Amino acid sequence: DAGITQSPRHKVTETGTPVTLRCHQTENHRYMYWYRQDPGHGLRLIHYSYGVKDTDKGEVSDGYSVSRSKTEDFLLTLESATSSQTSVYFCAISQGGLSGANVLTFGAGSRLTVL
Amino acid sequence: DAKTTQPNSMESNEEEPVHLPCNHSTISGTDYIHWYRQLPSQGPEYVIHGLTSNVNNRMASLAIAEDRKSSTLILHRATLRDAAVYYCILDRDDKIIFGKGTRLHILP
Questions:
Q1: Chain B window 52-71: which residues touch A at a Cβ cutoff of 8 Å?
Q2: What is the pLDDT of residue B106?
């Protein structure tokens, strides 16, 4: 997957428990993104990062927090998981708007089930 | 947020060209048009992008209207492996928003 790894790939957890998904890149790209994908909703942006310690909210950020303490890792945390957060989560990376085009490379996805 | 409109689904016959439309009437002068596709059970993958001129690469062609308010992704000869969801997005700033895309069905 072009230097981008998501972990875990599959996780089942219970309502109310904290969950952290990790996105790791070896490309030294500046931008990292977290999306969720649910049937009928396409891809929805949760949070993104434009540098170490620089993050911003996306379309559906409620219930999620992120951290980026180093270039290669972008963590997505569900402080207290709910059944509505059952989804497939995709991480994406990008060099940024070099030459005005922000091309994303996606990870393989992490499937989270909250019981 | 930069918004695009695509048909929910389309069908095409195998080995025929496919034209996937996208409307982006609120496009700004510096917005790039990007296309991604998502094969079943995989993450999205980049297909092509452009600003004003038509673009070609090994996967597809991108035709951009003169007023830039619409674009068309062209698959010159569809195969069964091209069955996927195709997303058209505008690269306006760092906040990359996807819509629901077009689900392309290829008929053998």
A1: none
A2: 96
Amino acid A2: pLDDT? 63
3-state DSSP of chain A: CCCEEEECCEEEECCCCCEEEEEEECCCCCEEEEEEEECCCEEEEEEEEEECCEEEECCCCCCCEEEEEECCEEEEEECCCCHHHCEEEEEEEECCCHHHCCCCEECCCEEEEEC
DSSP per residue over chain B, as a string?
----B--SEEEEETTS-EEEEEE-TT--TTPEEEEEEE-TTS--EEEEEESSS-EE-SS-EEEE-TTSSEEEEEESS--GGG-EEEEEEEE-SS-------EEEEEE-
Interchain proximity A48–B96, CB inside 8 Å: yes
Asked if B37 reaches chain A (Cβ–Cβ under 8 Å), the answer is no
Residue numbers of chain A with a pLDDT score lower than 70 = 1-2, 97-100
Which of B30, B46, B95 is the closest to A104 by Cβ? B46
Is the CB of residue A56 less than 8 Å away from at least one CB of chain B? yes
- Whether A102 sits inside 8 A of B45 (CB atoms) is no
